[in-house]
Amino acid sequence: MIDPRHVPDVAPEEMLARFILSRRHIRSSDATIKPDAFVPHPHDELSVTRHKDAAESEVWNAGRAIAEYQQRTLHGRGDVRADVFVERGLSVQADPVQGHATLPDNPNHANVTNWPKDDKGRQKLLALEIAATAKLVRPVV
Fold first, then answer.
1. Residues 6 or more apart in contact with residue 87 via CB below 8 angstroms
2. Distance of CA 27 to the CA centre of its chain
């Protein structure tokens, strides 16, 4: 994981993980991710985890901690490069979570920002384009 004392900016070529905590965000017919997994509703930003300096087990541990915190099931993750967001006018900002009273620590946490406010249709279109590039990765049992 990233050293929380020295968190670099997110590079365009970095891989990001969007944890999927709802079975309805995965198409069972072809094991692809539905766009709703990438819509920031109800927030203004989309929470992701960077792969940077993290072993595969550390990425999954971050997902499991988030699922446990939200009392949900981790169904998988959608891996997407940061530049996929940036090319659509969005920003990816490092936002490490450390020492928060209620959230699990995650020095690799980042937020995707600059979503069109009050334009759910545009958000959905962006999410559709992002989901089309995402690779579904299932958790190892």
1. none
2. 18
Give the pLDDT mean for 126-132: 98
Residues 70-91 have pLDDT tens digits of 999 999 999 999 999 999 999 9
In tens, the pLDDT along 100-110 reads 767 778 999 99
Q: Give, in order, the Cα–Cα distances in Å from 70 to each of 29, 34, 73.
A: 27, 20, 9
- What is the Cα–Cα distance from 98 to 62, expressed in whole angstroms? 12
Is 1 in contact with 54 (CB distance < 8 Å)? yes
pLDDT of residue 95: 95
Which residue type, as a one-letter code, is found at position 49?
A: T
- Contact present, 105 and 98 (Cβ < 8 Å): yes
Q: How many angstroms separate the Cα of 52 from the Cα of each of 34, 113, 134? A: 25, 19, 17
